[in-house]
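User: Please predict the structure of the protein below. I'd like the answer in structure-token form so I can feed it into my own downstream comparison script.

Assistant: Understood. Taking the following sequence of 205 residues as input:
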Amino acid sequence: MGAKFMNFGGLGRWWAGAAILLLALAAGAPALPASGTAPALRIRDLLVIDKNGHLLVFASLEDPFASPELFEAVQSGVTTRFTFELGLLRSRRFIYDSEILSRRVVHQVKYDALKKAYTFLIQREPQESAQRVTQSRDEMADWMREINGVAIAQVRELDPQSQYYLRIRARVNSVDFGFPFSYILAFMGQKTDWAYTPAFGLQGM
């Protein structure tokens, strides 16, 4: 009975120490924006064109790095990822439209403080990927937020008598929670609303 009491006391002291440590970390962590929420993100400049028999998508995520918290997260070494979800839908009268094709595009950046360089990785399903390196903040931001000519469909596979439209949204998240994690908490999991193009034929918009 006495041994059990001593173990319980040791456990209590452990919890007390952990609580003090957590409070100390919280006190030293950078503050989030006063509103407690990150600025709303949105998709803009959405365009679909036909080039060499492929429908290509162009779009831009309204500058997410205009908010200093997200940029500071990148500078702190947090591997930051933007995931773009694209869907091609066929318009159908009297019944629900159907999504016939979809793609996911991932833009990821990691900052190397020693080299003062950003490593950018783009991944397009199913197995397409490429990597670039820059020391320019502006160039990194452009790479992260812009979709430039992602192929969504081959024209020959579409019905020439049908009308189509594209929808796209983006999500901000992180591959890791490298400290200071509070920089990115306001942005984690934030998604844009779906953005839609007008209806178009096989020539695009």
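That's the full token string. The chain has two domains: 1-30, 35-196.
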